[in-house]
Predict the 3D structure of the following.
Amino acid sequence: DKDLVLTSIDGDTGVATITMNQAPVNSLSLEMCQAITTAIKEVESQPEIQSLVLASSLPGVFCAGLDITELHKPDEKRLTDFWHSFQQIYFDLYGSRLATIAAIAGHAPAAGCMLALSCDYRIMVSGAGSKKPSTIGLNETKLGIVAPSWLGYQYIDTIGQRQAELGLSLGLLHQPEQALAIGLVDELVPREEVLSRAQAEAVKWGKIPAKARLASKMLARKARLDHLAATRKEDNDFFRSFVTNETAQKIIDGYLQSLSKKKS
Ligand code: CO8
């Protein structure tokens, strides 16, 4: 069995790196969500580790978002488990005691953007000189689906109400320079520097006194995390009824076909 996620720890700096490793696009299947959660928990269980980089082993993609095949003609039980495991990443990553740095060296649409938003700091590959720059954003509305409220609030809390309203309503996927301009990412660097810059940034964050750093993070995030914890089941019920609806199924079916036709 291939590892969906690879974890490494730099013995000198104490920085952990979790690398998503599911070709072709690191889409979030049930198993991928579970593997990410397991990896975060394993790192967190090591008290000497203070910071974590989230990266991708794929050259042009950070994470393509939810695995759309999970949403297509789903089995009810699996769909429930799937959404539960996606919510779990939000709890584990957005609420992590670790300082978390996203190394975004490729596309990060929808739930891929959610992974980045769940980190404390985002470093993205620059678009300069690239014919097909990577993009990041919440494109759900373009697909006729809607981001869950907790993801919408991560967006609002990060880039502010106006930019989030525009981005969510229009389903915008931002090129790197634009993502930097609206505060969706914090830094742009050339492709070959994304990982090393993220690891260096993780060293810096790891040196901040951990209790004070975590308390500050929770100041901004705890109410959101508590809200989802209190409404987790309703959120799952809403998701299932939305996705299993006939109209949504038609959209998902069409989108899957358009994705796999793209190549030919
Ligand atoms: N899920 C499953 N398979 C996917 C996905 C995905 N999200 N994305 C791509 N694939 C598949 C393609 O179908 C293709 O398969 P095949 O080789 O069999 O034809 C393969 O991966 C490679 O894809 P591409 O050729 O498109 O790869 P590129 O490197 O050219 O492009 C991109 C990479 C830019 C990531 C592109 O694949 C893309 O745009 N993917 C779709 C991204 C997207 O729209 N994701 C949204 C997912 S929905 C989501 O996350 C919503 C969260 C909230 C949902 C709430 C619901 C109620």
